[in-house]
């Protein structure tokens, strides 16, 4: 049995939905950050699968840029979470009221 493009796209859709549910349902900032990373990896899987199916490497090149942005987002996001944890001693996003004056 050969794995076709539909399998990769279905897996990517499932991963993306799990990531969206993680962002919407969780209250832990670290879990939300991991869910965003999961969504970015689902998009990367889609780009690689489609570029392989079409015989073009443009999607695979774009994956490297998405991975660079994801790495920067993870580093900056984790630094912000650590700074907020030091101030509030929690990573629960309901406890952060930064924009109230």
Please, could you describe this protein's structure?
The chain has 101 residues and is mostly helical. It has a single domain, classed as Helix Hairpins, CATH 1.10.287. Helix content is 77%, strand content 0%. It is built from 3 helices and no strands. It has helices at 5-25, 29-54, 58-88. Helix 1 (5-25) packs antiparallel against helix 2 and helix 2 packs antiparallel against helix 3 (58-88). The chain is elongated, with a radius of gyration of 17 Å. The model has no long low-confidence stretch (mean pLDDT 90).
What's the short version?
By secondary structure, the chain is mostly helical.
Domain count: the total is: 1
Strand content: under 5%
Largest sheet: none
State mean pLDDT (0 to 100 scale): 90
| Terminus-to-terminus distance | 61 Å
Number of helices: 3
Instruction: Report the top-level CATH class.
Output: Mainly Alpha
Return the CATH architecture.
Answer: Orthogonal Bundle
Number of strands: 0
H/E element sequence = HHH
The CATH topology is what? Helix Hairpins
- Form type: elongated
Low-pLDDT segments: none
What's the SSE blueprint?
Layout: H1 5-25, H2 29-54, H3 58-88
Helix pairs in contact: 1-2, 2-3
List the keywords.
101 residues; mainly alpha; Helix Hairpins; 3 helices; 77% helix
